[in-house]
Amino acid sequence: MAQSVLTDMHLATMAPNGAPYGLVRDAALAIDGQEIAWAGRAADLPANYTGWPAEALDGRLVTPALIDCHTHLVFGGNRAREFELRLEGASYEEIARAGGGIVSTVKATRDASEDDLLKSALTRLDALIVEGVATVEVKSGYGLDRDTELKMLRVARRFADERPVRIKTSFLGAHAVPPDYDGRADAYIDEVAIPALRAAHEAGPVDAVDGFCEGIAFTPEQIARVFDAATALGLPLKLHAEQLSNLGGAALVARYGGLSADHLEYLGAPGIAAMKKAGTVAVLLPGAFYTLRESQVPPVEALRAAGVPIAVATDCNPGSSPLASLLLAMNMACTLFRLTPEEALAGATRQAARALGLADCGVIAAGMRADLAVWDVAHPAELAYWIGFNPLNRRYFGGRHGRHDL
Ligand code: DI6
Ligand code: FE
Fold this sequence. Notes:
By secondary structure, this protein is α/β, with parallel strands linked by helices. The chain has 15 helices and 15 strands. Helix 6 runs parallel beside helix 7 (220-232) and helix 8 packs parallel to helix 9.
């Protein structure tokens, strides 16, 4: 296993060490195989690492590699036509109710071959990787029948064979009611979503189970039935909650001890209290807020005051967030939601790891995976500050690097 020491750089460890960003100036970092063996001030580097091959990073900034903890990267077609319709005045909900929206992507995804889905999704995955992303969560949810849900999850798992990236899959069978079950959401949950979940778990691995709790999707009672089935299989939970209205989805997923509640524009005080109690992460998705021209901002100040961990993700999907830049999501989280740049970076590293139930990445510390991003910036605030500019110099994935790895 390769051993090396990185020198001549500054670390934003994102570990709570008392300094903003967990900053360590004039740092060194020892990599042993896939892991960080040591990280700290260069002056304190223990003698046993000084003989290891050293790489000087010319004063650059090193952060944990980024983690995109909420994406729908796998889908057929795109919805540029719907974008045009919205610009002509139609709302996202009107389009969905008229058979467009998610359902049109379902048709395209059912019709696409596994190889075609992989090919189109890799272009979006590559856009994330060149920004220093090393871990990506990918949801199913555009199949809405057993075979297509399984097909989507297989495509997502193939990413890790095709690229140096770690994939966490979420089963999202309860994403929308397909046309063949129109007006029969309960039957869809019982006859399709839950049996497909069991089949996906068997074909596995499925890392988490997600749902869309909303007027245009599923009620809390329907989601609870999916959660009961997931819990029986021992799978962790996530939920699209309080995106367009407040149905109490955040409190529901928190009651099940879920990993995260995502979107949250319409979240209220009871949901915040329930999330705090359960340790459920608030995943903010400013790309969807922006695309839908939403005006209700998630209650960031109240989440912060309650001490609920806040993550930031792209929600990359063809309808509400055709966004394949986590750096831009971080910028939007600051400008639109008033996160601090430090919260935005924590949201795409430490808190994103937590939203995925991962304890071995998201901060720089001994024993963590050597998933690192090296940036041509002087200060970590620049990562959320620049718009449409990518200052990545290189990325390390499990201790191995290449310039952009592609
Ligand atoms: N909320 C979203 O923003 C996406 N899914 C969800 O549950 C939208 C998915 C789409 O419009 O295709
Ligand atoms: Fe989503």
